[in-house]
Design brief:
The chain has 421 residues and is of the alpha+beta class. The chain has 3 domains: 33-49 and 76-89, no CATH class; 123-266, Sandwich (Immunoglobulin-like); 278-409, Sandwich (Immunoglobulin-like). The chain is built from 7 helices and 16 strands. The chain has helices spanning 14-22, 79-89, 123-127, 184-187, 213-218, 267-272, 387-398, and strands at 129-137, 142-151, 173-180, 189-190, 201-209, 220-227, 235-243, 253-258, 278-286, 291-300, 313-320, 329-330, 341-349, 359-366, 374-382, 404-409. The strands form 4 sheets. It has a 4-stranded antiparallel sheet with strand order 5-2-1-8. A hairpin with an 8-residue loop joins strand 11 (313-320) and strand 12 (329-330). It is elongated and about 130 Å long.
Length: 421
């Protein structure tokens, strides 16, 4: 036990002070070494510093001189007094204080300061970052999505690029696109797969055809990055979603977005807005051939009719009324696709004045072996049509020898007399 003289202030050694801090109880932050050594101007005593000033209502604190400083010749170490003197310069003592001291509010960290413990848990860091660009070609009703690369996240130091998915610490990534709302198979486009890499560079452009201004307002593009596996199901790495209303027509917008965890898809909304698909038709009345040229260019986002989630589509056209039943034309069958490209053209020999009395019926079918073909959807163009279908037909009649292309939405209603293939 250490004896002290009468009037001398009780002191606690640095060893005892540290022992108090580490004894069982609530965890306290470790003091910095600079807390024990206040910065005084050179040549000034500790109690002359600006931080030594006590509040006006604080009781007078005895200084080291009034307490009687012991010299090294006394044979007693003065470390305890030095520590006490240093703490006194801060207006606080490691031991019991003679009076209540005003509580200091805890310092709040800046709001924009990154969380030092959140690097590995952050989705951007854990899943990677994707660079891509989007362009809506309004004239051709096409949405071009260019997938550039998956780059190294800025906050990641222990790992580079995408999240490793395979046992070798790498992945076989590819990118998949999906328009929401809409059937998954009909709207799915994907890039090639790059093997054994966490920093893939695709530089590949995927295009959606048949995109209208209405689609740009209500649809969202879902971009998913997956890891391809040969012997089991492909694994999901991360995704991002871009509302198409953020894009300006005919203006390329570049993105660099952190991938997120998989988000749920509203299946009820998908079902309520389900479509049969769209078809791109060209019309031209040729003065040279004295007939109507009907071009079946392509279809997009067709409904899936087979168990494998795809269809084997082909297109038929009729010019009615057809007394002789000779107006039927049929395209080739495109196997296992929901976005077929036909580029076929048929000619109906007819006088230009008679076109106003005719109706063009276009139907899309799924070819099946050994059973009846499935009806996917159809569209009717003519004087009795409405909206874009009527406008397309009228523009064809008004502009001879000019090819006019328009996208049309297929309906699930079978046109008039067309009951089967």
């Amino acid at each position: 036990m250490t004896l002290r003289r009468r009037g001398e202030k009780a002191t606690i050694s640095i060893q005892e002070h540290m022992a108090i801090d580490v004894c069982p109880g609530p965890i306290r932050p470790i003091k910095q070494i600079s807390d024990y050594f206040p910065r005084f101007p050179r040549g000034l005593p500790p109690d002359a510093g600006p931080r030594a000033a006590a509040p006006p209502d604080a009781p007078a604190r005895p200084t080291a001189a009034s307490a009687g400083r012991r010299s090294p010749s006394d044979g007693v170490r003065d470390d305890d007094e030095d520590v006490d003197q240093l703490f006194g310069a801060y207006g606080a003592s490691p031991g019991p204080s003679p009076g209540p001291s005003p509580a200091r509010p805890p310092a709040k960290p800046p709001e924009d300061e990154p969380d030092a413990d959140g690097y590995e848990s952050d989705d951007c860091t854990a899943l990677g970052t994707l660079d891509f660009s989007l362009l809506y070609d309004q004239e051709n009703n096409a949405l071009h999505c260019t997938i550039s690369k998956a780059k190294v996240p800025k906050l990641m130091f222990s790992r580079k690029g995408l999240k490793p998915m395979d046992h070798n610490g790498l992945a076989d990534p590819y990118v998949k696109l999906h328009l929401l709302p809409g059937a998954s198979k009909a709207n799915k486009l994907r890039t090639k797969t790059l093997r054994n890499t966490l920093n893939p560079t695709w530089n590949e452009t995927l295009t959606y055809y048949g995109i209208t201004d209405e689609d740009m307002i209500r649809k969202t593009l879902r971009i998913s990055v997956c890891d391809e596996d040969k012997f089991r199901h492909n694994e999901f790495i991360g995704e991002t979603r871009v509302p198409l209303k953020k894009l300006k027509p005919n203006h390329t917008k570049t993105f660099s977005i952190c991938l997120e965890k998989q988000l749920p898809v509203d299946k009820t909304e998908d079902k309520s807005l389900e479509e049969r698909g769209r078809i791109l038709i060209s019309l031209k009345y040729s003065s040279q051939k004295q007939g109507l040229l009907v071009g079946i260019v392509r279809c997009a986002h067709l409904a899936a009719m087979d168990a494998n989630g795809y269809s084997d589509p082909y297109v038929k056209t009729y010019l009615k009324p057809d007394v002789d039943k000779k107006s039927k034309h049929k395209t080739a069958v495109k196997k296992k696709t929901l976005n077929p490209e036909f580029n076929e053209e048929f000619c109906y020999e007819i006088k230009h004045g008679d076109l106003a009395k005719k109706t063009l019926e276009v139907t899309v079918w799924d070819y099946d072996i050994g059973k009846s073909n499935d009806f996917i959807g159809g569209v009717v163009l003519g004087i009795n049509a409405k909206g874009e279908r009527l406008k397309h037909w009228f523009d064809c009649l008004k502009n001879k020898d000019k090819r006019i292309e328009r996208w049309h939405t297929l309906t699930n209603e079978l046109p008039g007399a067309v009951l089967s293939d």
